[in-house]
Amino acid sequence: MLWRFFLSTLAIGCLTFGGGYAMVSALQRELVVRHGWLTPGEFSSGLAVGQVTPGPLMVMVAFMGYKIAGAWGAFLGTVALFAPSFVLVLLLARSFDRVRANPRVAAALRGVNAAVVGLLLAATLDLGRASLTAATPTLMALAAFVLILGPFRRQPTWVVLVAAGLLGVALLR
Amino acid sequence: MVSLPAILQVFLKIGTLGFGGPFALLALMEKEVVGRKGWLTPAQFAESTAIGTLTPGPIFFAAAVHVGYRLRGVPGAVTAATASLAPAFLLTVGFAVFYVEVEKAPVVAGLSRGITAAVVGLLATVTLSTARSLVRDGAGILIGVASFVALELLGLNPVWVILGAAGLGLLAYREAEGGPGPCSGASS
Question: Is residue B188 a part of any domain in this protein?
Fold first, then answer.
């Protein structure tokens, strides 16, 4: 289990170009949908922990790794997710300008960036199907969408998630 | 050359006080290493940020590694990487230990259901803003739809979907490329 979790996160760490949220959707797909190691609620709780702690959101993988495989899961999951980026930065450090100007690299990254939207949409729908099973959570999801997008007054993400958690304690037990 | 303890101290500070998402983190790092410490020029810092668009995962992390490397080679990179993640890692594991202790309580079930509902809303906003900023043409829309179908209907592994999208990007954009890059913002 630990080994399979490690390989899964390592693959995501190596190949999920397109920023932190691309990794969120890849992790959701792998850990919740494909392997069933986490429930949607556990995954979302991990994401909320990532939002209320400082540093990059993706350290949330430590929460998920701990839940799946204990302390080693937390440690190895974090290493697997961040080490590839670390190695690649060092490899690119000298040839950075050349690589960035390469039209093939730019074209491939444009393709990946477009795919990230598909990944995110899939993650949204998966989580929505699993959790919006009644009127109250559906209304809460809509409210969160409006508050975070902020046509009126934009709220910080962590504030919305914490408020939703408290509301959930009151309404969704 | 900047000393390792100095790098450690600055990145521990960023890792501890860096709340509020990727842009807040990058802004805090810039304030520290460009502003307060004066270790890098704004142009050098912008280059470290840009390298994050070429690597997987969070841009902030890649930028931190690059800044550490620039300041003091590989040991500097290791120090910056470890120090910027360690506070969040320890806190997160603390939360996880606590969560596993209390997860059976009905309060936690309500908490996690409430959070999950909001996370659906959050992911919808991220999907929307990502689509608006990254997909600007027909080929992009096709690749986005194709990857959605590959994931949802064919159940493909996301890693293969991303590799496939890179291949499709090569096919679709090789001739067109030459204008501004997709996410670097700089003209190539």
Answer: no
- Residue B33 falls inside a structural domain: yes
Domain around A104: 2-131
Residues 61-120 of B with CB under 8 A from A: 61-62, 65-66, 69-70, 74, 77, 81, 84-85, 87-89, 91-93, 95-97, 99-100, 103, 106-107, 109-120
Question: Which among B56, B77, B101 is the end of a domain?
Answer: B101
Q: A105 and A148 share a domain?
A: no
**What domain count does chain B have?**
2
Residues A51 and A57: beta-carbon distance below 8 Å: yes
> Is residue B184 one of the residues assigned to a domain?
no
In DSSP notation, A22-77 reads: HHHHHHIIIIIIIS--S-HHHHHHHHHHHHHSSS-GGGHHHHHHHHHHHHHHHHHH
Q: Is A83 helix (H, G, I), strand (E, B) or coil?
A: helix
Residues in B touching A41 (Cβ below 8 Å): 109, 112-113, 115-116
- Among the partner-chain residues A43, A54, A115, the one whose CB lies closest to the CB of B143 is A115
Q: Tell me if B153 is assigned to some domain.
A: yes
Identity of the residue numbered B4: L
Backbone dihedral region for residue A56 (phi beyond 0: left; psi -120 to 50: alpha; all else: beta): beta
B185 pLDDT higher than 50: no
Q: Mind listing the pLDDT tens digit for each residue in B98-125?
A: 999 998 888 888 988 999 999 999 999 9
Q: Which residues pair with B187 in a beta bridge?
A: B180
pLDDT tens per residue, range B40-80: 999 999 999 988 888 998 999 999 999 999 999 999 999 99
Partners of B139 on chain A (C-beta within 8 Å) are 114
Q: pLDDT tens, A105-156? A: 889 988 988 998 999 999 999 889 988 989 999 999 999 999 988 777 777 8
- Window 96-135 of A: residues touching B by CB (8 A cutoff) are 96, 99-101, 103-128, 130-132
Residues of A in contact with B28 (CB under 8 A): none
Q: Range of B167's domain?
A: 106-173
- Identify the domain boundary among B39, B67, B101: B101
